[in-house]
Amino acid sequence: MGRHARTNQLIEAAKAIPAEHNPMTVRQVYYQLVSRQVMENSRSQYQAVSNLLVHARKAGVIPWEWVEDRLRRPRTVSMWDGLPDFAETARSACRRDVWSTQSRYLEVWLEKDALAGVVYEETEPWDVPLMVTRGYPSLSYLYEAAEVIAQRDKPAFLYYFGDLDPSGIDITKTVERGIREFAPDAEIFFERVAVTPQQVKVLGLPTRPTKQTDSRSKNFAGESVEVDAIPAAKLLGLVRNCIEKHLDQRALARTRQIEAAERETLVAIQQQMRRWWRLAT
Q: What is the pLDDT of residue 160?
């Protein structure tokens, strides 16, 4: 197969992955190509996929919005075109705290900031806090998280998603140990959901050699797997299962009912404000 034909084949394969679920990060697309045995698992191949996605988007083969950079975002100031516009923002942002009427409290913890946008698709509709550690979390981050858990004063269920490698396992332990230390009286249930050795086998996740330069590798057996390697749909399903099994549907329905009524009130206020604004301007 010629170089041009091979490039077109890779572009078609890369296009099919975010077409199933988007947006995705470059690393997610890369790992799915590895899982489907289109690419080898190596640093050079990752760079090749990154360059390929740049070329494909510039050529209009893959929409720009299918691949995103979740680490670099512009910092902007919130502004409105007047009070009616601000009122619309307030109406759309009006949400009841789902977990204030639930008998339990829930958080999802994630090692990779690059995956936050994907996981947020499942945590946001249920008002579940998404706690991103970005590797090892700071002591302040753990302290503040523990303070929130303690203030909730109800059983707290924390679900962790991270890499299956020496540091990833140690980060999990660091998070759990820190939360328990700073909230000693709280009833905490901590579970590492992914990545697990069983998931590697069942899902056929691509592995990489464990870094022997990592001081924690002596207590780690086998090859390493990044949480990015889990297909997006499967990752979302894992998060969804963690959330839904704790929801009291009757309490949730009541919360949504009150929320809808409050939004109707804000709509009436918004309409009145628009009439006033037209007269004033």
A: 98
